């Protein structure tokens, strides 16, 4: 359970797709002029990541990894189809994006029109493909963790585009210097937001590795305290004995 919680918060705040690895920046910058549009695209990204990352985990686990085809028989155990990762991952992503596009066009034509070309371009959004490739590179062990990683990565991207959209709506009424208007001030704000998100890096530090160090430090402090108390007692005894002799 703790592993799921740690992965969830780490993927949202610390390893944020936008602020940590700068993936999906084209959609992030182009579709963040209005909050309503940003919410629609962010929700679509969450859905696509939540579906494609677990599906690609299954493909990687039972088809692409070295020896993954052992379930077909011993003669297939030596096959390695890892060179097909990009092709199969993109095919899975493109299929799910087409499904999202059909659903959005059917139930929300206004959102479909506002998103424009960027909705089908989710298929080649580097944040979507990056989610599957990071899942593969980090060797996520279970399907549940893969689903967790997909959802949390999508939420992180959603929060990033929602925050910048809200700021850009408000900043229209600010007196921004002419050379910085548009993408200039947006890049500056993105950098500041990235610094803010990276400050969450300390929230998951400590843990098992730090616990022995903390215990050792506490033990050393207790030992030093006892030594000081013993020295004070010895000094009092010496003073008392000297007083008796006199």
Describe the structure.
The protein is mostly helical and 246 residues long. The chain has two domains: 2-205, no CATH class; 207-246. Helix content is 71%, strand content 0%. The chain has nine helices and no strands. The chain has helices at residues 2-14, 25-30, 35-64, 85-107, 109-115, 126-137, 143-171, 183-198, 207-245. Helix 1 (2-14) packs parallel to helix 7.
Features:
mainly alpha, single chain, 2 domains, 246 residues, 0% strand
SSE arrangement:
Elements: H1 2-14, H2 25-30, H3 35-64, H4 85-107, H5 109-115, H6 126-137, H7 143-171, H8 183-198, H9 207-245
Biggest β-sheet: count, sense, barrel? none
How many distinct domains?
2
Unreliable parts: 210-215
Overall mean pLDDT stands at: 82
Can you give me a brief rundown of this structure?
The chain is mostly helical. It has helices at residues 2-14, 25-30, 35-64, 85-107, 109-115, 126-137, 143-171, 183-198, 207-245.
């Amino acid at each position: 359970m703790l592993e799921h919680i740690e992965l969830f918060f780490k993927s949202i705040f610390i390893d944020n797709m936008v602020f940590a690895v700068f993936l999906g920046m084209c959609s992030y910058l182009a579709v963040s002029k209005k909050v309503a549009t940003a919410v629609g695209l962010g929700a679509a990204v969450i859905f696509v990541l939540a579906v494609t990352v677990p599906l690609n985990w299954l493909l990687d686990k039972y088809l692409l990894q070295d020896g993954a085809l052992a379930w077909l028989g011993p003669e297939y155990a030596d096959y390695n189809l890892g060179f097909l990762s990009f092709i199969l991952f993109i095919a899975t992503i493109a299929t799910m994006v087409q499904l999202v596009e059909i659903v959005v066009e059917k139930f929300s034509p206004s959102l479909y029109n506002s998103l424009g070309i960027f909705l089908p371009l989710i298929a080649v959004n580097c944040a979507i493909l990056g989610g599957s490739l990071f899942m593969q590179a980090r060797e996520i062990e279970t399907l549940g963790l893969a689903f967790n990683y997909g959802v949390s990565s999508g939420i992180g991207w959603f929060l990033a585009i929602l925050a910048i959209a809200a700021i850009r709506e408000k900043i229209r009424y600010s007196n921004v210097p002419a050379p910085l208007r548009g993408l200039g001030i947006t890049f500056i704000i993105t950098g500041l937001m990235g610094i803010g998100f990276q400050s969450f890096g300390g929230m998951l530090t400590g843990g098992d590795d730090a616990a022995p160090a903390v215990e050792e430090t506490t033990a050393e402090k207790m030992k030093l305290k006892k030594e000081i108390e013993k020295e004070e007692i010895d000094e009092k005894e010496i003073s008392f004995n000297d007083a008796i002799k006199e």
